[in-house]
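Researcher: Here's the sequence for the chain we discussed earlier.
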Amino acid sequence: MQSVLQYLRTVWISPEYSASTMLMEMLLIGLVVYVVLRFLQGTRGARVLQGLVSLLVIGLLVIKVVADQWGLERIQVLMQPFLWIVLMTTLLVFQPELRRGLMRLGETRWRRIRRSEIDRIARPIATACGQLSKNKIGALIAIERDIGLSGLTDLGVRLDARLSPELLNTIFWPGSALHDLGVIVQHGRIAAAGCPFPLGDIEGMDRTLGSRHRAAIGLSLDSDAVIVVVSEETGAISIAEQGQLHRPIPIENLLDELRQHIARSAEPIETGEKQPVSEDELTA
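Model: Thanks. This is the structure I predict for it:
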């Protein structure tokens, strides 16, 4: 016990460092850990990383104290290659999370959706989803926000068409060449259709979810997009965001729900009244 206390005093109380310098170092380390854990929140990697960090901190502390106490020089020599092995293993285990981070760094844009654009995006989608839900036609629509989805649009069929309920209904109509995959909305326009979304696989996911819902969750983990799903089996409408699937959403509430989800990254705006929408308009 005395060895542990002595080691902690050496770490925290050193004549070479002032209190302010040590505090800044601790804050920087804490910030890095917080950013990593916040980034992995909602994925399998979060709990694994927490366990790994705890194990490493406790293990290295014990090894350092024991080696100093008993003069075990070989253990201290072996610590450095052991840490390299742990680092390489971590890179392999967290490959999906690292890929997601690189994607975010490479595609993050500083343009945010203006509040004035929200209704122009949400209303046609809500109307189309209401009609598709009534007819039990499956749909998968992603609304791009801060993180670009250009990599996915390149895999689909580029349209660059005006966003309208009629076009969305045509795309997802059974038998069409594009109805099985996803539509991406960029800058208030339908950028592409027939886009394959990454399937989500997170801890605690309902295994009864179909491929559309899993794709919506997967894309919401890889980006900050808002994804709307219409179930082909039940006609139920869901919204996926940040790895969470919100369902079922009543048709009459869909427009307001879409506005709220999209507005979370919107710029501060001029005030304005919402235009009301009726259930008849959504299901017409």
